[in-house]
Input
Amino acid sequence: MRDKTANAAAARRGVGKPGSRRAPATKRPRRAVAILAYDGLSPFDLGVACEVFGGIPPVPGVPWYSLSLCGAVPGPVTAVGGFVIQVPHGLDRLRYVDMVIVPPTEQLERVPTQVFEALRRAHARGVRVASFCTGAFVLAEAGLLDGRRATTHWSECDDLARRYPRVSVDPAVLYVDEGDVLTSAGSAASIDLCLHIVRQDYGAEVASQLARQLVVSPQRDGGQAQFIDTPMPVLASSNLFAQTVAWLQQHLGEQVTVDELAARAAMSPRTFARRFLASTGTTPYQWLLRERVLFAQRLLETTDLPIELVAAKSGFGTAGAMRTYFRRAISTSPQTYRRAFKDRRAS
Output
């Protein structure tokens, strides 16, 4: 059953107003997820969604998502590469879910027209909708991206903007969160979006555990660049660089400079800053701020430490400084985040 926060958000989006239909709350499992399946879908992105939302919970005892695979009609669909996938559920399943995942497709015309109408109905009921890569074209065709900011694979952004001029296409980010509609860039960015969703639903600590389970970075910010020009080669210097980052993650509460980090990596400050940007898509300073916000989130979720102590342990120094950066990153205050997270867990 959707919690009070989700119901309030749905009400703000117009759910329950005349002309909208909503499935009975008693029939909707908590955090039920449906993946749409149609001919031409990407097996990689389907696998990502299944691994995240249908896999083993990263923390034992956490009531994880329930997952369904749905299509225009139950039966086989053919994915890219010739894989044949059996789809057990029809689109009527969307009446009982909280989120719909829309995977990429190479040919929009192969998506059955019933899918677009089912998406519109689900969204009108307050269901969260997320697309991976070129799945954004499916959302745009359904009209769910009109007047919204969205992204897709960088090579397809111009085409998306040309075909759907009412969509504000951002080609420079990994994913876009518009609240009830989310879009992600190329295939690997679907993992980032999934971790972002898990972070929203279960908190930073569970999302970090899931990232470790998947052996991926725990957080790449949605505003990070899609395309990184010169990935760092796997050499001895890169090992030193990785060790420096690992050290920094264990010393977030300390005040460090780029010069000090460069020295630990046996690089000049200029080389360190340049290679860090090339390999991560962000500057050392911005990376450090995100890591500190993420660590502060964990402390707020898992401890009752006073805000001043959370600020000190996460490296912000003062509660005022932490509030400033926290609000920029999370769009709320640390205290409000702590209360909201506890309320969500309690529900």
Q: What stands out?
A: Residues 284-302 form the longest helix (19 residues).
